[in-house]
Design a protein that fits this description.
mainly beta, 44% strand, dipeptidyl-peptidase activity, Serine_Prot_S9B/DPPIV, Dipeptidylpeptidase IV N-terminal domain-containing protein, Peptidase_S9B_N, 20 strands, single chain
């Protein structure tokens, strides 16, 4: 096979039409799904095979990109079933936070339908949709879905946009979000987690602290190995005697803007 580059359509021009087909590894004729809607006014944003099945999941985004229809198609009968439709008045973000659970009876889904970006557990037929990450905050990104342990690990900023911490919630949606990142460290955390959610490479920084990188165990966030603390860089910065960044808000009338400033030494 060879990829064929397709130019992005300019304003007023037609989109390239896209369709989804399946073909046997034996080289039989390609069979095409008949997905409703004008293919030039809809985008087929994602297509994935559902594990341990003869079905595919297709995400169909309209041209305004504020409606996402999720279809499940049978690759033998070529029948389609619209199991879920996500809508927004303005815009929808396509995501890849889908993981099948409980023998492919459920899958995870990210939506902003309640005003916050949250993770949900959805039944295969789309009739059940239960909130996993409860709280008044956006889920910035999903780090690990640990089905065996029953937890979802994710980054969120419930208190301040300058702070990002690791949280975990139960897949079943019971209980409240639990902060995993140390509560005595204020700043920005990022993580590379192992598939079993037992280990991670954690990186911490804030406006006065350079990257501190360590291997930690989870869920207790115990440091096993310090990889880099940038102590030399930290010492050089501290020796400058600079005032720290001050984060503030500026009211310009119609909106309030976030800002930061550094005052001169001795100010």
């Amino acid at each position: 096979s060879q990829p064929i580059p397709l130019p992005y359509p300019k304003v007023g021009t037609s989109n390239s039409a896209v369709k989804v087909g399946v073909v046997s590894v034996d080289g039989d004729e390609t069979k095409w799904f008949d997905i409703p809607g004008d293919p030039r006014n809809n985008y087929l944003a994602r297509m994935d095979f559902i594990p341990n099945s003869n079905e595919v999941m297709i995400q169909q985004l309209n041209r305004l990109q504020n409606r996402n229809k999720v279809w499940i198609g049978n690759v033998e009968s070529m029948q389609l079933n619209n199991i879920l439709t996500d809508k927004d008045d303005a815009f929808l973000n396509i995501h890849d936070n889908i993981q099948w659970l409980d023998g492919e009876k459920y899958f995870t889904w990210t939506s902003e339908k309640d005003g916050w970006r949250h993770l949900y557990k959805v039944s295969r037929n789309g009739k059940e949709m239960d909130l996993i990450t409860k709280g008044d905050f956006d889920v910035v990104n999903i780090n690990c879905i640990d089905e065996k342990g029953g937890d979802v690990y994710y980054i969120a900023s419930p208190t301040s946009y300058t702070h990002r911490y690791l949280y975990r919630s139960r897949i079943e949606g019971n209980g409240v979000a639990e902060r995993v990142s140390p509560k005595d460290m204020e700043g920005h955390f990022s993580y590379q987690m192992s598939p079993d959610a037992k280990w991670a490479i954690a990186t911490f920084q804030n406006s006065t602290t350079p990257n501190r990188i360590s291997v930690i165990s989870l869920p207790g966030h115990k440091e096993a190995t310090l990889l880099e603390d940038n102590s030399e860089l930290k010492a050089k910065y501290d020796a400058l005697g600079l005032n720290p960044k001050e984060f503030c808000k500026i009211d310009i009338g119609e909106v309030v803007l976030d800002a930061w400033m550094i005052k001169p030494v001795g100010f």
